[in-house]
Amino acid sequence: MCGILSTGMKKRTRPGTYLVLGFLTIILFGSLLLNLPLSRTENSTATYLDCLFVSVSSVCVTGLTTVDLANNFTVFGRVVVLSLIQLGGLGFATFALFILTALGKGLSFSELSVAKEAINFDSEKGVVDLILSVLKYSLTIEAAGTVLLYFPYYKLYPSFFKALGMSVFHSVSAFNNAGFDLNGNLSSLEVFNGNIYVYCVICALIILGGLGFFVLQDILKNRKWNKFSLHTKIVLSTSAFLIVFGTIFLFFGGLPFMDAFFSSVSARTAGFSTFSMEKLSGAGRMVLIILMFIGASPGSTGGGVKTSTIAVICFSMVSVIRGRKSVAFKRKISQQSINKALAVFFLAIMVVVSATFALLMIENDKDPVAVLFEVVSAAATVGLSISLTPSLHLASKIIIMAVMFIGRLGPLTIATVLSKPLNERLDYIEEHVIIG
Asked: What pLDDT does 395 receive?
């Protein structure tokens, strides 16, 4: 991994290119490890395509799978999946630069640029300190989650090592918003249906992982609302609003209150469920599609277009209606932030619409809403499923893998990597276009 960052780096090569290559390398290596006889159980039905799908889903911290992990993979295979989740959630560049730093090697500007891109930071300055904080926060929170989940798992599996392994796996999976489980038969957390304690622990891990490391650092450093940055205020207020919004609508849609709360949290973008998604009403599915599409926050382990993106677009819309500058919490939002938010939003829409159309052409016997649900779940790296993924055709599975990959790295990053850089020095005359 370190070689990817440090070998042959050219000045004109965009940082996003190294992220794409790095993630592809880890995915392919992970699929080969999962395909080893050592990784699969005697009764495993997993093919190489299934191993590749699980590897993509793990690195992209999505949680969609074509086979049940508990029935198809050995302890070694599960450790591979866990490692891929951790690498994917925190980013391979984070680990690579941590290793370089630990070895006492200086980091070049190019390597810092890759790290900045990987954690969605706005400057090379302070990247190393932030990466060290990211690892510290992550390991501390995951360790706490392991301790808290150990007790309910020990009741299910009265064996120290079995309960410990299950609690470690699900703590890491929850914090990284991956949604993978080892409870068997693609049942997610249905075994804990109605267990308020488990609901609260998993939700806490999901929320902490989804807020973003910038926000966690800001909260621990400043501790008071009036000292928080504009980004932190937007993320916290938008996240709280979406949790309440989702809980209310799902509750009135027929779910018990705690299941409605858990689903509202998990849909952004963890992918755990405490009941079968097939039981959801049409309205409930649409609520989850909206929550999944929005997703977590920048610099987090989650996906989606991000809370701050939607918030900035909403603030911008209100400013247009009122005929004033875009303002939030008595701070003006930069035009660059607005432009980037619009680009991310519409690129994500294009990915979802294109993939949904392609799948409907292939899976013409499937429910269109179920197909849209699956595509949004993949694009936002959520992992919730209406039991559709295992039954998809080969071409559809390849599309879903591509969508998960785009969703993890971000459509804007992929578009930037694929586009041709322009070196225009001309300044054009500004002219108004009639809108609306």
From this structure: 94
